Amino acid sequence: MPKILKVTPLNDYKLKLEYSTGEIKIFDVAPYIVGSWFGLLKDKEYFDTVHIANGGRGIEWVGGQDIAPHELYELSQ
Question: What is the pLDDT of residue 28?
Answer without folding.
Answer: 98
